[in-house]
C-alpha cells in the first residue's frame, strides 16, 4: 500500500475530556462555548473528524460522561459521523479511594472499585466499544504505609475479575505512570509492571503507553519496539510533556520523539487497527477544538515522515555498520516537509487542505459560543 493510502486509513481517537474546561490544581480557566454534556462533547469531536478525516472515534470517561442511556449516546455519535472509542474508567475521584482503589487494604473498597470497572465493560457492550482503558492512581506516599507485594496481589485479583468479564472482541489496556498522585510508590509505575500483569492474564490484556508518563530521558521508542515485539502494545495516549504529566499537545514538545515512536510502530507492524492512537490531552489555555485538530495533524505529520523512511537504505547502512549513513537515512525522513503531501491527501479525501483555517472559517465556534452557556468542566483540575 502506498504512503497516501496508509495515511488515509489512519485512525486517531480524541478524548471527550479534551473538549471540556480543564486546568491545573491552581486554576481552571473557563472557556466560551464548551460542551455542557457528553452529547455536546461528541458533537465537538465530530468537528475534529469533519476537518481532518482521520479522527472517527471518541474516548469516553466514566463517570465524567455518565448518561442514562449509553446506546442512545452511541447513536448520537453515529448521527454526527463518529463512534465511541475506548471507555476510560475512573477509580481515582472518590473519597473512598484515598488509600487506593483496587489495591486498597479494605476489601469493601476494592469491591466498589472492581464493580466500577465491570460497569465500564457493560458500557462497552451498550456502546459497541471494544476497549477498556485502565489507569490506576493507586499508590502510597510514605515508606511503610502499606505492603508493596500485597498491593500487587490485590491488583492482580481485580484485573483477573475484569479480564474474565470481557466479551469476544473486547480487550483492556493497562496504563502505567511513574508517579502522581502517589509520590513514593505507584502500584503500576512502569511498562514492566503493566506488561507482567497483562502477560499473566492473556491476549485480551495489553499495555497502553502514555507518552507523558515516563521519567525524563526515557527512551519511549524502545518500550514501543519491545512491547510490539511481544504482541503487548495495545495503544497510545499521546500528549507532550516538558516536566511531568503535562498533557500538552502531542508533537509540541518533542516532534522528533513522536517521529521515532512512529518509526518503531510502523517497523514493528503496529500501524493498523490493533494499536490504538489515542490523544490524552487537556487544553487549559488554548481553544479546545483547534487544539485537537492541531494535535491530530501533528500525529499525521510524524506518521507521514515515518512512512517515508527508506527502510531498505536504512537496513543496508545498518548491516554495513555505516553509523553516519544510517543516521542520515533516518534524519532525511524526519527532515522532509510532509505538509504539501498531507494537504493534497486531504483534497483527495474531499477535505479542505487547511483544517485549522477551515474550522476557523466554518462559524462553528461562534455558534457554540452563542448556543452554550455555562459549559462543563472536563473533570481534571477540579
Ligand atoms: C492519567 O494520568 C492518565 O493519563 C489517564 O489515561 C487519563 O488521563 C485518564 O484516564 C482520563 O480519563
Ligand atoms: Zn493517559
Ligand atoms: Zn496522564
TrEMBL record:
Keyword Oxidoreductase: no
InterPro entries tied to this protein: L-rhamnose_isomerase, Rhamnose_iso-rel, Xyl_isomerase-like_sf, Xyl_isomerase-like_TIM-brl
Stretches assigned to the Xylose isomerase-like TIM barrel domain: 46-242
Short name of any one Pfam family annotated for the protein: AP_endonuc_2
UniProt-listed GO biological process terms: L-lyxose metabolic process; rhamnose catabolic process
GO MF annotation, one: L-rhamnose isomerase activity
UniProt keyword Metal-binding, yes or no: yes
Keywords, in A-Z order: Isomerase, Manganese, Metal-binding
EC category: isomerase
NCBIfam families xrefs: RhaI_grampos
Protein name: L-rhamnose isomerase/sugar isomerase
Amino acid at each position: 500500500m502506498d504512503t497516501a493510502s496508509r495515511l488515509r486509513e489512519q485512525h486517531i481517537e480524541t478524548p471527550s475530556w479534551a473538549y471540556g474546561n480543564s486546568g491545573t490544581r491552581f486554576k481552571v480557566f473557563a472557556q466560551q462555548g464548551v460542551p455542557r454534556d457528553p452529547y455536546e462533547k461528541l458533537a465537538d469531536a465530530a468537528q475534529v473528524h469533519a476537518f481532518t478525516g482521520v479522527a472517527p472515534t471518541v474516548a469516553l470517561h466514566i463517570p465524567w460522561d455518565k448518561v442514562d442511556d449509553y446506546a442512545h449516546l452511541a447513536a448520537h455519535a453515529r448521527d454526527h459521523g463518529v463512534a465511541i472509542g475506548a471507555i476510560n474508567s475512573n477509580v481515582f475521584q472518590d473519597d473512598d479511594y484515598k488509600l487506593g482503589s483496587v489495591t486498597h487494604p479494605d476489601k469493601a473498597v476494592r469491591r466498589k472499585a472492581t464493580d466500577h470497572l465491570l460497569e465500564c465493560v457493560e458500557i462497552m457492550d451498550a456502546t459497541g466499544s471494544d476497549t477498556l482503558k485502565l489507569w490506576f492512581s493507586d499508590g502510597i506516599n510514605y515508606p511503610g504505609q502499606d505492603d508493596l507485594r500485597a498491593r500487587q496481589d490485590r491488583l492482580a485479583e481485580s484485573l483477573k475479575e475484569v479480564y474474565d468479564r470481557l466479551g469476544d472482541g473486547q480487550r483492556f489496556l493497562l496504563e502505567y505512570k511513574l508517579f502522581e498522585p502517589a509520590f513514593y510508590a505507584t502500584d503500576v509505575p512502569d511498562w514492566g509492571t503493566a506488561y507482567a500483569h497483562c502477560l499473566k492474564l492473556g491476549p485480551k490484556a495489553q499495555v497502553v503507553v502514555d507518552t507523558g508518563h515516563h521519567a525524563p530521558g526515557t527512551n519511549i521508542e524502545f518500550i514501543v519496539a519491545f512491547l510490539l515485539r511481544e504482541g503487548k502494545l495495545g495503544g497510545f495516549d499521546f500528549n507532550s510533556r516538558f516536566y511531568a504529566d503535562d498533557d500538552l499537545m502531542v508533537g509540541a514538545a518533542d516532534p522528533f520523539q513522536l517521529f521515532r515512536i512512529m518509526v518503531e510502530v510502523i517497523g514493528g507492524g503496529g500501524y493498523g487497527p490493533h494499536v490504538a492512537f489515542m490523544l490524552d490531552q487537556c487544553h487549559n489555555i488554548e481553544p479546545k477544538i483547534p487544539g485537537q485538530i492541531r494535535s491530530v495533524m501533528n500525529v499525521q505529520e510524524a506518521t507521514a515522515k515515518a512512512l517515508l523512511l527508506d527502510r531498505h537504505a536504512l537496513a543496508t547502512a545498518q548491516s554495513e555498520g555505516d553509523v553516519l549513513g544510517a543516521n542520515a537515512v533516518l534524519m532525511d525522513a524526519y527532515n522532509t516537509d510532509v505538509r504539501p503531501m498531507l494537504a493534497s491527501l486531504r483534497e483527495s479525501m474531499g477535505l479542505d487542505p487547511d483544517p485549522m483555517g477551515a474550522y476557523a472559517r466554518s462559524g462553528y465556534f461562534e455558534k457554540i459560543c452563542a448556543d452554550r452557556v455555562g459549559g462543563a468542566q472536563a473533570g481534571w483540575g477540579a
